[in-house]
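Section 5.1 Outputs to date
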Amino acid sequence: MTLHSTGLPISDAPIDRGASSVSPPTDTYQLFLALYHRGEFSLGEYRLRLGFSAYHWAILVLDSKHDRYHAYDVTDGSSPDPLIRRDLNPDFQWTYRVKSNVRPESCDSLLIRMAIGEVSDGIGPETIKILLQSVQLPIKGAYPPQNCVNWIRAVLHKLHFHGYARRLQDVEMTIDRALAYADLRLLDPVNSVTLVDHLGNEILQPFCMQ
């Protein structure tokens, strides 16, 4: 410590200019459960026979700051590589898939988006990617058959457990509600909603859940 000419002590520490009343901005990402139609497999007898798996299920994460979505799902479909002209999944095994810069509004097969939670405080798309990668893939040849719905169910439980989907107290009810809204979209695409909250209430645009 040093002395000023007035004799008053002056600390060697930086000058305290007062605490800032504004917290630093934190990026917040909205989480959605998304359902896509599978063509004829989502209709008529196929819909009745396949049940939940008549649709394709995925998780979307909205990065509103950059106006883009990230998509996470599993698939056992073919994976053609245009460069080497080979199918990278010739045995149709289940694989984890991540896509960036997804545009839901330009995807004709997307039926509904259901807001299920949010993440912030440094938790973003990369964290979600790693978290969902730890969820077990569907088992090929299992009985009863396993599919992307089994994976989504486990994902919702994990998101809830980690506090990223706190309001999903009943995962099965959420899945049932999402399925019902997907059915409505196919029956009446003009008058049915495309964006809902976890209770099935229409929302006009993606938002941050309080």
